[in-house]
């Protein structure tokens, strides 16, 4: 065999085994790739880049949206994965919009392997009829968030996700903002615009409210566009939790399987 043929053969084997796992900081597998896609959908609805922290306990992310009006806190435990090998804690910066676009190509019945590969994130989709790989360049995330807002909330509401989505849609026809009020026995939403007004009330024992607790009445007004983006990834049938304090950031959170996604949104204050 001539030198040129040996050279091509060696290069061929290097390409095949370049992702064999040597020196890999982490390698994780999720049996249902669509599940990871749904989780990323909840993140990209608010931020387009962020720092994923990968430890032996799972994957987490905290990030502010570009306007610094809202924040997301995401946590996915290691039990969500069928394989979770992490050599040591690592943080990877990603363009989440690019990640979301690649995950949008997820096909039915595929599993997903993710691992670091030469300053890139390797995504390997494995399906019944074959496999394919994507690589995403890691980026430097200049603005990272370590702590959540420290608010001593006065009221807490647990509401079915679908009725809350309907409330947000109804309010969006009239206004860009919505006011939530929570007291001991009543949760209400109000929206007002040039074309009309909306008022909706739900009592503590209604089928829509799963829980209503209030040590002090709380009322604040919030941007509807941000709220729509926050709740659209909530799976059908899931509950959404809301914590309120008058004229303070609200906390809204729900589960996607074992993962929890929490959002904080600053109130709208009239000038």
Note the topology.
Blueprint: H1 3-17, E1 26-30, H2 33-44, E2 49-55, E3 58-64, E4 70-77, E5 83-86, E6 90-95, H3 96-103, E7 111-116, E8 120-127, E9 130-137, E10 155-160, H4 161-172, E11 177-182, E12 186-193, E13 196-203, E14 209-214, E15 218-223, H5 224-231, E16 239-244, E17 250-256, E18 259-265
Antiparallel strand pairs: 1-5, 1-7, 2-3, 2-6, 3-4, 4-18, 7-8, 8-9, 10-14, 10-16, 11-12, 11-15, 12-13, 16-17, 17-18
Helix pairs in contact: 2-3, 4-5
Description:
The chain contains five helices and 18 strands. The protein is of the alpha+beta class and 271 residues long. It has two domains: 114 residues, Proliferating Cell Nuclear Antigen; 111 residues, Proliferating Cell Nuclear Antigen (Box), CATH 3.70.10. It has a nine-stranded antiparallel β-sheet with strand order 6-2-3-4-18-17-16-10-14. It has a five-stranded antiparallel β-sheet with strand order 5-1-7-8-9. Strands 13-12-11-15 form a four-stranded antiparallel β-sheet. The radius of gyration is 22 Å and the shape is elongated. About 6% of the residues have low confidence.
């Amino acid at each position: 065999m001539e030198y040129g043929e040996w050279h091509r053969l060696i290069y061929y084997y290097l390409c095949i085994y370049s992702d064999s796992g040597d020196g890999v900081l982490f390698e994780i597998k999720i049996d249902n790739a669509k599940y990871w896609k749904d989780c990323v959908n909840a993140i990209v609805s608010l931020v387009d880049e962020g720092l994923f922290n990968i430890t032996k306990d799972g994957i987490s992310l905290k990030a502010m949206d570009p306007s610094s009006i809202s924040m997301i806190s995401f946590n996915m435990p290691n039990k969500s994965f069928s394989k979770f090998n992490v050599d040591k804690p690592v943080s990877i910066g990603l363009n989440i919009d690019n990640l979301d676009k690649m995950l949008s190509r997820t096909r039915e019945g595929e599993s997903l392997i993710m691992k670091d590969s030469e300053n890139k994130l390797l995504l390997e989709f494995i399906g019944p009829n074959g496999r394919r790989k994507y690589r995403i360049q890691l980026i430097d995330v200049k603005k990272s968030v370590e702590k959540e807002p420290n608010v001593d909330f006065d009221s807490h509401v647990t509401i079915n996700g679908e009725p809350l989505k309907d409330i947000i849609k109804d309010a969006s026809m009239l206004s860009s903002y919505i006011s939530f009020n929570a007291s001991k026995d009543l949760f209400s939403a109000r929206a007002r615009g040039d074309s009309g007004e909306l008022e909706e009330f739900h009592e503590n024992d209604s089928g829509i409210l799963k829980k209503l607790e209030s040590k002090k009445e709380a009322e604040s007004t919030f941007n509807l566009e941000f709220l729509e983006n926050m709740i659209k990834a909530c799976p059908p049938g899931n509950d959404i939790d809301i914590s309120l304090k008058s004229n303070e950031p609200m906390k809204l959170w729900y589960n996607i399987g074992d993962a929890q996604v929490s959002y904080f949104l600053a109130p709208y204050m009239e000038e």
